[in-house]
Specification:
Blueprint (H helix, E strand, L loop, with lengths): L1 H31 L4 H26 L3 H26 L2 E2 L2 H22 L5 H24 L9 H4 L6 H32 L4 H6 L1 H19 L3 H26 L6 H25 L1 E2 L1 H23 L1
Antiparallel strand pairs: 1-2
């Protein structure tokens, strides 16, 4: 148990450093290319911080543990909305770009509902390939939209605008170095978390939904908190929504192409509906006054606590 706790601590430290480097590199690269930080948050940062989920899902599929892969995707999306947005809002209220409210939040709700429908019959390889194809189309779509509306014409914080010094290669190097830190830190953290969970006698599905989901979401948590502290709300919120889409379309899609993904009954009737409910809650919260307040962040965190308590009590019954 001691070595597992040490892995958890080391992984957390490396993740925080990686998140700081990634946010710096992503913000600088976005501005140097004339793209908005919102686009980079939805794509580059979202994909990078979702890489631990992808690694875990692929490993679980190859190891014949599809329940962990599905649980990781669903649990990570619940963490994205409840824990990350909740924590960031507690640090400071998050202003939400109108594009997120009008485009990304409805898309997350729609894709979560589609994922739920597909999982009711088990995700086949063909359906998984279709999900991955949708991700490619989505990325091309928002890239073209970002090129039509370059970053200089979008609200970019002055604090980020001051970080444009240096070459694009240097910005890219920071981003890649941060990505490496995120992946290494996540692997250390997840390894320690899984050891502890197995010693407690939990199933693959529960481990995927709770310990692994939180562990693989630490990159998103660290990145969004660092982005919020650096007054880059577009990266903070875009990372959450973008990661949710990448998890459902990319992670589940790639894992499902390796092996079809059946869903445990409890995931179908409880966990996926909870993920859908949290996603749907973002729409009225963000639309009310164009931001997520501290009180709303606290409600999201409390909602996650209630979810975990209900899930663990059901598992124990």
């Amino acid at each position: 148990m001691g070595s597992a706790i040490l892995l958890l601590c080391a992984g957390t430290a490396v993740l925080i450093l990686g998140a700081e480097l990634m946010v710096r590199g992503a913000a600088r690269l976005a501005l140097s290319l004339g793209l908005s930080s919102l686009f980079v948050g939805l794509t580059v940062v979202a994909f990078a911080t979702s890489s631990p989920e992808l690694v875990v899902a692929i490993q679980a599929s190859l190891a014949g543990a599809p329940d962990m892969a599905v649980g990781n995707v669903v649990g990570s999306n619940i963490c994205n909305v409840a824990i990350i947005l909740g924590c960031v809002a507690l640090i400071q209220p998050i202003p939400c770009h109108h594009t997120l409210i009008q485009r990304e939040v409805p898309l997350v709700i729609l894709v979560t509902g589609l994922f739920w429908l597909l999982m009711k019959g088990g995700l086949s390889r063909v359906e998984a390939a279709a999900l991955a194809s949708v991700l490619v189309l989505y990325t091309v779509w928002i890239y073209r939209a970002a090129r039509r509306q370059p970053g200089s014409k979008l609200p970019v914080e002055a604090a980020v605008a001051s970080l444009t010094s240096g070459s694009r290669l240097q910005h890219l190097a920071l981003l890649v170095l941060g990505l490496g830190g995120l992946i290494l830190g996540a692997n250390l953290l997840v390894d320690g978390a899984i050891r502890i969970a197995h010693q407690l006698g939990w199933s693959d599905a529960v481990i995927g939904l709770t310990v692994v989901a939180v562990g693989t979401s630490v990159p998103e948590i660290a990145t969004s908190i660092v982005a919020a502290l650096r007054r880059e709300p577009d990266i903070a919120v875009g990372n959450v929504l973008g990661s949710s889409l990448w998890n459902l379309l990319g992670v589940a899609g790639i894992a499902g192409m390796i092996t079809p993904l059946p869903a445990e009954h409890r995931i179908l009737v409880f966990d996926i509906p909870v993920a859908l409910a949290f996603s749907a809650a973002c729409l009225p919260i963000m639309r009310f006054d164009g931001r997520i307040s501290r009180a709303e962040g606290m409600l999201l965190l409390l909602g996650y606590v209630v979810y975990v308590l209900l899930r663990l009590s059901w598992f124990a019954s």
